[in-house]
UniProtKB/TrEMBL annotation:
Pfam families: PBP_like_2. GO terms for biological process: phosphate ion transport. This is Phosphate-binding protein. Its main location: membrane.
Amino acid sequence: MKKFKRVVFLVPSVLLIFFLSGCQQLNQESLTVAGSTAIQPIIEMAAAKYRQQRPNSYVNVQGGGSETGLSQVAERAIDIGTSDVFASKKASLQVHKLQDHKLAVSGIAVIVNAKTGVHNLSMRQVQKIFTGKITNWQQVGGKKLPITVINRAEGSGTRLNFETLALAHHSSMVAQEQASSGTAYQIVKETAGAVSYVAFPYVQAGVIAPKIDEVKPTVANVEDNHWKLWSYEHLYTRQNPSQKVRDFINYLGSSQVKKIILKLGFIPVSAMNVARNRYGTIETVK
């Protein structure tokens, strides 16, 4: 009889646990952000802090590339699509159904393996290197080393911006491709003669970020457009997004997230002295 009583009291307790757990799951708000791998660290850090303030909110952050982010938000597969390029660059999208929220600016630097000995290039030399017309670092004043080009993957916003801004709309040569700036950096660091292009935050120890036409790749030079290789980091939502999406977008525009943007080496849009529209036209910010 004692055993029977224990079971009777145990079952309601277990049911109560499942009931409370179920309620917690039902009350939890979740949303998914995917796309640009360049902006991913900002969103991940912001999402972690956001959840500290809103324990019932969960933000699932994924990469996949700018093209993936744009396609999936347009298809309603995700809540927010992150992109290094304007949605209008993707011809198949119904852009009028999307809303653009510019979060930050990212400089793009050419990086070379330290053994090349190259610290300065002209834009014309950059174009010839990435189109396969220059094949040895000795041809641009460096060491006698064959050039190994590391491209970002097709669908990468960083690649599209680099080909537009640095290569004058020419495609880079067929070469090894990497899905993220972090991986591209690592391979350039470890491979003698390697060269690639990455967002500023990924310019780290062990590689050289050469000047281009005597201009250094610095935040200050991006802000004034002296360094021409930069892009916006976009957050795209559907028009009239849900309240949970609006709440997170508003949080991403807060002073707390601005600190994250600066800490990670990106540039707040408000710090720019110029603006670039979707056609590439540069205007002074008044």
